[in-house]
Write a structure and sequence with these properties.
By secondary structure, this protein is of the alpha/beta class. It contains 13 helices and 11 strands. The longest helix is centred in the C-terminal third of the chain and has 30 residues, at 232-261.
Length: 348
């Protein structure tokens, strides 16, 4: 272990070994620096402690205050700042009034996530940090799988939260989101913090059942544990891993197909050459659409709209031309020999 015996009080070698194995698998263990996204809750505080104690590189701490929970939220920011400074770590923070920053049709939860990750990615890019670590746990994974299942997703949704996700920030620098605690349960992490004598903040809204995720966490999963299968969290995580392998295989096939079909103009517009699409299956075209959306950093379409766009793409040349609005500033157009992904101007 990289720290002194005093720093490791209350930590088991098995815990350290699992954490390091995760870091090696996800690729960040040998990085010079990692940005830890810390909210102040038990999961993210455990993440910070594990990185600070175990990780051989430098740890920087980032906190985003959403402007939703008033004084309690501001107190979280103060708590995290003191936690970071008490450990001698660089602290970066930002705040926003999320209700006022919501885009049209965007839920408060989605808006908060968008603003939070935009800040983390910007901070990482400005500091030259490749990896952003978040405190997602096995419990979060299980909840996400159930949420996606009930929303009618397919295999990709059942893959849940990816262990590693590459994004782009700042001036197109590559930044990776990693989940070092995805293999640990919340119960394990709180036991770790208790053994170490480390406090955390409780988000009072987690006990409220106004959000579907909270109902799953507070009511459904405990009921399943008691009456159906006490290991439901690990079973759902295993399902997510299996589905992730299928989804990654589909994504690789879509990437290979896009390499043959797509090109990017100097203005940034993406063009698909219709003749090179050939007899691709509807399933492959749908996955190509998803991959193109990821590369353009567009909000993911639901299954129904993805399948609709795939049917439009498959129309024979010469039929009535069409336009498909992806989101406020992006439109997919039939341009004869080409299918164009164009940025459009909002009406003023």
């Amino acid at each position: 272990m990289p720290r002194s015996d005093e720093a490791l009080a209350g930590v088991s070698f098995k815990f350290f070994k699992r954490f390091k194995e995760c870091g090696l698998r996800q690729g960040w263990w040998d990085a010079p620096r990692v940005l830890a996204a810390v909210s102040g809750g038990s999961d993210s505080v455990a993440l910070l402690d594990c990185l600070d104690v175990f990780f051989p590189g430098e740890v920087c701490v980032a906190h985003f205050e959403h402007g939703i929970r008033g004084a309690s939220s501001r107190a979280d920011a103060v708590f995290v700042a003191e936690l970071a400074r008490g450990r001698g770590l660089l602290f970066l923070s930002a705040s926003a009034c999320t209700p006022e920053e919501r885009e049209k049709g965007e839920s408060l939860e989605v808006a908060a996530r968008r603003l939070r990750y935009a800040f983390f990615e910007r901070a990482a890019a400005e500091c030259g940090i490749e990896y952003i670590a978040t405190g997602h746990t096995a419990d979060d994974q299980a909840e996400t799988v159930l949420l996606n299942l009930f929303r009618g997703c397919g295999v990709r949704g059942l893959a849940g939260i990816p262990e590693l996700r590459e994004t782009r920030a700042g001036h197109a620098e590559k930044v990776k989101i990693v989940r070092p605690l995805i293999g640990f349960t919340r119960e394990e992490l709180r036991a770790h913090l208790a053994a170490r004598g480390i406090a955390w903040r409780e988000d009072e809204t987690n006990a409220e059942n106004d959000y579907t995720r909270n109902r799953l966490r507070n009511e459904l999963i405990p009921w399943v544990k008691e009456h159906v299968n006490r290991t439901v969290v690990s079973k759902l995580c295993a399902l997510a891993e299996e589905c992730a392998r299928f989804a990654e295989s589909d994504r690789a096939r879509a990437g290979e197909a896009l390499a043959q079909v797509a090109s990017v103009a100097e203005c940034g517009t993406v063009f698909w050459q219709r003749e090179k699409i050939g007899d691709a299956s509807p399933e492959l075209i749908a996955e190509m659409i998803r991959e193109q959306g990821r590369r353009l950093r567009l909000r993911a379409l639901d299954r129904r709209r993805t399948e609709l766009l795939a049917r439009l793409v498959m129309r024979k040349r010469g039929s009535k031309r069409w336009r498909f609005q992806w989101q406020g500033t992006t439109e997919v157009r039939d341009e004869g020999k080409l299918i164009a992904w164009r940025t459009i101007r909002k009406a003023t």
